[in-house]
Amino acid sequence: MCPHADEEGRIESSKGHLKNLNKKGLILSNCSALIILDNNYKVLKSSDDAFINLAYYIENEFVERTLDCEGKIEEL
């Protein structure tokens, strides 16, 4: 998990960690929060520019998918 991804170098650093670990990770900007309870999650944002991305590599290609279900409870 990479909080404060807006800060310089944070996303690039996370990309390197994810590639070396072969894992999926979450990239959270400032003004965003993720609530996880059991097998459910909810995205909270206090700014329109805030984001939470699921990030991972597939065959050496970096992939990011935005979790854009703000305010709704979703299943993991």
Describe the structure.
This protein is α+β, with helices and mostly antiparallel strands and 76 residues long. The chain has one domain. It is globular and about 30 Å long. The two termini are 15 Å apart. The mean pLDDT is 89.
The gist of it:
With 76 residues, this protein is α+β, with helices and mostly antiparallel strands. The protein is built from 1 helix and 6 strands; from the N terminus they run H-E-E-E-E-E-E.
Assign a percent range to the helix content: 10-25%
What string gives the helices and strands in order? Answer: HEEEEEE
Average pLDDT value?
A: 89
Tell me the overall shape.
Answer: globular
Distance between the termini: 15 Å
Number of helices: 1
Rg (C-alpha, Å): 12 Å
Reported for the largest beta sheet, the result is: 3 strands, antiparallel
How many structural domains in the coordinates? 1
Beta content: 35-45%
